[in-house]
Every structure is written in C-alpha cells, then in structure tokens.
Amino acid sequence: MSEDPVLKLVGSHPPAFSLSQARQISEEHFGIGGKLEPLWGETDQNFKITDDKHSGYVLKISNAEVEVSAIDCQISAMRHLATSAPSLSVPLIKPLLSGQVFGRVAARDGVEHLIHMVTLLDGVTLANVAIDHDNLFAVGAQAGAVTVGLRGFFHAAAGLELYWDLRRLGNYERYIPGIADAGIRKAVEAIVPSFRTDILPLLGTLRSQVIHHDTNQKNALVNPVNPAEVTGLVDFGDLIHGPIVQDVAVAAAELARGDDRILDDISAVVRGYDKTCPLEEVEIDLIYDLALARLALGVLIGVTRTQNEIGSMGGADYADIYSPPLESLRSVGRGKTVRQLRSACRFPEYCPPVALPPGTNQAATNVLIRRRRKVLGTALPLSYDTPVHTVRGRGVWLYDVDGRRYLDCYNNVPHVGHAHPHVVKALSRQAHALNTNSRYLFSSVIEYAERIGAMMPGELGACLFVNSGSEANDIALRMARECSSQDGTLIVDGAYHGITNEIYALSPAAEWGLDNGEGIEHVSKLRADIEIVESPDTVRGRFGSDDPQAGEKYAADADRAIATLEQAGHPVGAFMLDSAFSTNGILNVPRGYVEGVTARVRAAGGMIIGDEVQYGFGRSGDYMWGFQNHGLVPDFVTLGKPIGNGLALGLVVTTPEILEQFTRSKEFFSTFGGNPVACAAAMAVLDVIENENLLENSRVTGTYLRDGLRAVGQDNSSVGEVRGKGLFIGVDVVSDPDTMTPDAAQASRIKNHLRDSGLLVGTEGVGGNILKIRPPLVFQHEHADMLIEAFEKALKQCGRP
Ligand code: PMP
Q: Quick check: CB of 640 below 6 Å from ligand 1?
C-alpha cells in the first residue's frame, strides 16, 4: 500500500471473499440464502443474492479502508430518500439479524471489513440496453429527483475525502506523464491547471448539498422492455457534499456515448436533470468544464491504478474508457456545448463571460438578420447601420453575442435597469404562484391600482388595465368621446401615440420614413374628425424662444382647430398630449402653451388625455408624471412602456366618475390586461423607484449629463442645442447652428459612431436630426461621464469642428 493519501483507496484492491464465504456471511448475518452472483465493484465487493422466497438483495463487503461513518452516511441517505422521495426507486437497507444496519467480518488475513445489505431493484443496467435520448433523459431526470430528495439531508461523513471527487483533480497532476496516449496526455495537461485556476474557485460559490455523484451506466437501472422507464438508481458509495452541478456533470460525462453523439447525449441527460432539479444559469455554463474534468479524472485514476497494478473495470483500463469521450467532448468545444445546453434548458442565448474578439459571431448574426427579414418583413427596421445582436442586459448595460458591452443610453422600457433583480424576482415568484385573466379575483391588480392612484393628482385613481400604450390611448380616446359626447380629436403636429387603427390616425409622426416621394399624406390630415394643432417648436417654428408670448401664440392655433372640428360636425371630444413632445424633437415647450390649448379644449367640452407612455414614472426628474411639469391634471392618464420594466402592461387612469359613466352600459375586459405577473413586475418597479430614489437620480444625473453634453457641444458646429428634462435629453444636430438647419445624416453618423464605440443612443424628431438620450433611470454620473467623453470623440471623428 502506498503512503500517498490520494492512493489510499484508489490504489487498493476490492476485498477477496470467495462465493462460499459470502454465502456464509449472508446466511449467518442476514438470514438470507439463495443464489449468489458476484457484481462488479471498484474497491468494494458486491454479491447479488436471489432466491424464490425473496425478490433479491445485494450484499456489500466494503474495502478495509472504508470508515464506519461513510457506510452510515450511505445508509442514512437511502433512508432519508425513502421518506423524502418515496416515489423514487432507491435501494432499501436490509438490517442484520442482530438488528444493526451494518456489521463486521474478518477476512482470512484477519483484516476487518464492514458489511451491509440492500434490496435488489428491478430492471437491468443502462449498460445492458441500447442507449437513446429517451432513456438518457429519463436517467437524468431520476438523478435530478434524487438530488431534490437529498436536499435536506446532512451527514458529517459526506465531507470525507473521496478520490472520485473531481475537485481533487489537481492531486493527480503527477500522474499525467503516465498517460500513454500523447494526444490525451496533452489534453489533460491543458485541462488540469485551467480547472484549478478558473473552475475550482467558482465551485465554492455554487449551490451545494449531499449529492449521489455517481450516475453512470452501471448504476442506472431501466425496464428492459421499455428502457425509457427508469427502475432505480443504485450505489450510494460516492455520496459527497458538493455542488449540485458536479452531480449533473458526472451523470452527463458518464452516461454519454464517447463519439460524435456526445453533445446530444449530454443534452438529453442535462434536460432530464433540469426537469426535476431546475438548474441555474451559472451551473449550465459549467457543465462542459466539469464533464471534461470528470473524464480527465477517469483517465488519471486509470493511470494511478495501472501503476499500482490494479485492474480496472472488468479488466479494461480506465484510460481506454474515458479517453474517447474526453477527445469527443474537447473537439465539440466549450462554446458549442454551452450554447446547446442553454438552449436545451430554455435559457436565453449565450453571452460569453469574457468578451470575444468583435465579430466572432458575425456569421450567426447575419443569418439571424436574414431570417428576421423573411418572417418579420421590413416594417420594423433594426437600429444602427450594424445592428446590435443583443443577448443580455444588466442595469445600464446591454451585451451582445460576442460578450461586448454597450452602455444603454436609450432604452426606457427597462426603466429601473435591465434585469433588475427585484423585478425579476417579483415576477418569477408571481409566475410560480398564479397568472390568469382579471375576471378572477386576485389582489395584485387591486393593490397596484390603489398604489398608482395614490400617486396621481386630483380624483385620478380609477384604472383600466390593458397591454400596451397604444391600447391605453385607444381606450382613453373611446372613453373621452363617449363621456364628452363629442367625437372630434385634437393632437399636436408631429406626435406619436400608437398603432391601433384609431391611434395610428392620431400619430402623424408615424408617416416619417413613409415618404418615398409619392406625397403620402398621413391619415390624420385626411379625416374630418381629427385636427392637428401647431407644434410649439421654438427652434424652427413661427415663434422663437425669445418671444415671451410664444406659448400663448402657439396655443391660439387651437381656436382654429376647434372651430374647424365644430364646423365639420365633429366637436372636440379629446385632446391627446405627450407632454415630453418626444417625437416632435424633445421640445422646450414655451410657457403657457399646454395651459392654453387644454383650457380651450375644456371650454369647448373636450377632455384631456395625458399620454405618459414615455414620460411617466419620473423620467422628467422633477415630477413623477410629465403633465405635472405643465401644471396640468388630465382627465385620463395613459401609461405603458416603463411600467413593468419590460413586461407588457398598459393602463388608463381616470376618475371614478368617468369610469362609472363609461362602464354604465357595458363591460370592459382585456384578457391579459392587469394579469398578476405583469402587476407583480409593475409593483416591483414602483418599489425600486422609491427604494433607489430614482426620481431624484433622474433630475440630478439628467442635469449633470445635459450640462456635460452642452459643454462638449458648445463650440461644435454640429450641435445646435441640448434640450430636455431629467433623463430625457435631445441633442439637436444641425449643419449650421446659426440657421439651425437639421442634419439628419450627421445625427445618424454620430449615433452609429457611438454605437461602434459601445454606447447606444437613438434619433428622433420631425427632421430625424435629434439625438435621443433616454437611458434606464439607474444611470449614474460615471455613466454620464462615459457618454460625454464618447460624444466628444464622436463629434471630432464625424467631421466639422
Ligand atoms: N405614446 C407614446 C408617447 C409613445 O412613445 C408610444 C410608443 N412609442 C406609444 C404611445 C405606444 O405605446 P406601445 O408601443 O406600447 O403601443
């Protein structure tokens, strides 16, 4: 026996009791006789015992090196499973005649061995049937179920050293030179050090518990008639406390066939495991490395045993068993394996933890663009000359398929940051519990309505839940028309309110980009029941910011519009207003304009719809709702986009009186509107806005960013003006600041330059020349600094001083 602790057990032979000695032990200690057959054991000796009376047992004579506590641990685990997961088929302990669960016998040389007996399970080993994805899936599922069953199990001996623990891979390093095959030797030489430095430290941070840790083709039992039916999992001899992912990786490495089917086989095992024991993303991404480590460990244990002149499995060398899968898996590679396993477990596309050289996945991106065009058409163009193939978002960062990160200075839907953990947690918890339509009574939609109502001014507090901003506007419009009994509508030139038939007609901004020289007129200009009031654009409109009466002068156009509607037989029933004047170019609205138009509309019997789909939830910094910047209290407030941080939800808030009037003679029902999951997300968004003080952040960081951009753009002839409020900023890009001539081409160049430098902004406005900056509200000073610096560089590199 070697003094090397690693070799203490790995280098030892199984006990060598004869059949007749074993029979005697069985009869004497357990009262069980019958036909005995030796079963293979690596370091222990096993005998299958069958007779006519009993269904069968396995007598286990442990290696002399095995400690009592280790056997006690195995037995306790099996007993634990019998109560925690009674439907799982695992062996049951057969006590000795003495009532003990294990005993001791002496070999001829006087050395003592522990003995115990378990029930024989039905079925044949997986090694005895044709392996396919169905039985691999089923065995994977069984292994996962055992892990779940062992969740609450503890035994101090699960912490004992085990030579098959792949976390000990480094201990075998000195045996690498003994690997006969040069290719395998090189492979193992590469695996061992990187395992130690890159993988091992991570394992200590993962979910850990007692795991079975030895699902292999000999330990998994299946029904020979239907091999996709698992009849049991045996051999608790490798039980250990360790990361759950180690258990699934061992199963994957041991069960998969070692040729070009390896990846599909591993996928089947992992899919099965994930079904019963849902895996975490970080675990999925480690399976490749851990499976390779297991295979390398197999080779090294083989070398160790050969050097100590111990036969391995049935005489075959472990190196012969583990080398083919090792080679096959290595040739598949990490990237492909991780992608396939993520997809098998329905995890989103892979994002490499460390950025790959830019363009590494360009070919795949190009294919995706072609597929998109084929099925989604061209109606929805992709942003940027080189589209960003996004796979992940975190806070203010978006990541592409190569793992490159982009500072998201544009997206307002992830209002409190991409994948905010509080929101993700809330919606997934709700999804676990209930998601249904709002005809059933559940609390979240009511709680949300109460909470949002308490945040609104005046009587506003009665809610109608829908699924998008467009729908909210559509319903608000219908309500306004019905409740005012007037069907004319007023909108601001250049506005955008959505996509439904009625709302599209109120969105002249939707015509931009349509104009192909054929003089297409937007429907808003053709309908007698819609009138457009002049946009209060003090940069390019009739009245400039130097005119103190500009607001009132622009508002006066409402007199004309209201009269025109009246004459056409469509008196004004509604005025819909996006108080950010977003698509108009994020305007500095002159004082008196909003007040002037809304007062005229109300005087004519019309109602006001405050479209807060973009501006709401604190974006303007000073107030939670954009209309508050204008001292307005609308009759309807419509909410969308940021409301659920990406979960689809739309909301109309009005007064109880108006709601009562609208629903008096009809019911209102939107299947998904206000569903519990969307409401959970929306509730969590409000929590985060409060807890992280995001209204204040929007004001402070927005002001800082605007000042920085102004300073950079001050002496640059491309920058006409920097406008906006809070974290909603427009940079007016011009060809000449004196004439303020819009320069959409230059705006596009700057936007694309920023994109290529890793910062995302958009373009907006009637002339398409306004750089639109509207980041998640968790945007901080440091991010503002990055944008200011990149903007300065972009201005320099896009020409014109
Ligand atoms: N109103 C405004 C001001 C918007 O910006 C938008 C979306 N761009 C909408 C309404 C429509 O919202 P949705 O896309 O959710 O239908």
A: yes
